[in-house]
Amino acid sequence: MMGVEEQKRAAGEAAAALVAAHMTVGLGTGSTAAWFVKALAVRALDIRCVSTSKATADLAVSLGMTVIELDAVSVIDLTIDGADEIGPGLSLIKGGGAALLREKLVWEASRRCVVIADAGKRVPRLGAFPLPIEVVAFGHTSTARRICDAFAECDMGIAPRLRIRDGGPVITDGGNYIYDAACGAILDPALLADALKSVTGVVDHGLFLDLADAALIATDSGVEHLTP
Ligand code: 5RP
Question: Cα–Cα distance between 119 and 86 in angstroms, integer?
Fold first, then answer.
């Protein structure tokens, strides 16, 4: 039986095979995406990459890859990234690594997005993984109250919690804070996505809906290719 880390590695390696020379490639964030970046570096293709986080950019550069800014490209050919949950229709929760804003910006600038994951990430319904919400630091407790109101509009009595690490708020690459909402189950992800986006101070949330074109999910019997 494959362990979770072996599955992540298998998914990352399968994704690296999708990349062709001269592509502009979006690099995701997290441990699965790191396996992809390592496998891609081994291929030594003539490509340029746009990273979804400083951590991934540092890894890619350390492996000799060319990383450019998102503003330097008009379109990204292919983005490969991990996810925290993969639900029906390849709806996703992302942002466990606090990179959801840059991830969504890179995904939305991409012709094609492929999500890679171990088998444990597939769920029948989103929400067991706490939904990350990126908020502007200024007035964040006030924003958090209005996030509660947004949840209430969706008939969800949820109070998101500020993500803390090493005694202080986690600060994203964009200088924002992350709140995590323990939803349990998200019955209408599109409704919730709209409600959260309408809150001033919310920069973005970890619901990635209608963005993934395919998924590569590693299981004990091989890497499964899924489409929405
Ligand atoms: C980072 C993400 C990651 O893709 C997600 O957290 C999955 O991480 P991992 O591959 O380490 O399980 O969304 O913001």
Answer: 10
